[in-house]
Amino acid sequence: MQDLRSVLQKHDFHFKKQFGQNFISDGNLLRSIVEASGITSETTVVEIGCGAGTLTRVLAETAKKVYAFDIDRDLQPILAETLSGLENVEVIFRDFNKLDLKEFEKEIEPYTVVANLPYYITTPLVTKLLEESDKVQGLSIMVQEEVAERFCAKENTAEYGSITAAIALKGNAKIVKRVSRNLFYPRPNVDSAVVKIEFERGRIEVKDEKAYRLAVKCAFLNRRKTLENNLVNFFKLTREQAKLVLQEAGIEEKARGETLSPQRLAKLSDVLLDHNFIKET
Known about the structure:
This protein is an alpha/beta fold. The chain is about 40% helix and about 20% strand. It has 2 domains: about 5-200, Vaccinia Virus protein VP39 (Rossmann fold, 3-Layer(aba) Sandwich); about 210-275, rRNA adenine dimethylase, C-terminal domain (Helicase, Ruva Protein, domain 3). Helix 6 links the parallel strand 5 and strand 6 (about 135-145).
């Protein structure tokens, strides 16, 4: 692999803080990310935030096809050099978060996302894939360590939140590697971790996914308040209606949202749906 810094200097590339650009050049780390992702020669990969193409190249050496997205067109001459000779890579200069995912997925096979994600897009991007994608099979993503802990948290912990519950509906998340900030260029202010999310649709039985998402949003509306109060405030229920919902869902009257497992949140959403407090989609 070519020396990353010399390639960037050659093309007079300037890092843009607004894009959260922190590139990886360590070959061992790149190979370990690809290995942990479990991709094979039959896998189609979507990479989001391909940067200078260091991970892209290692992905392409294993995967069937790589669609590499980046928002910064100034990387074009750099990628032309770092990805030269690869026939199975398509670089797309678009903001993935603004992409019409349904249209994009009409043209491609089921895929795995493998990426060193810019920190600022992590949660919106994962949410987009969870809610809009029909073809994503899993994610192996490098994220800020604190965010990785949140993705994999258990109920009744400070890290557990709405994004944890949203991921749990579709897949199982685990941290597969922790990465020092010293392995990035330029060096960020925080350490990172690689999270692997294996999608398993239907792993938690729920009557309606939108109802589940609304129930989750309600549960974490105000962490200091009881779920009963959140139900009253979020769904405009009477106090009596809120108590009835909790009782039918088998939830203690004074419980807070952060104490509920994803399975119990699913039950809550089903009860809300049964009483027509949420409209089915």
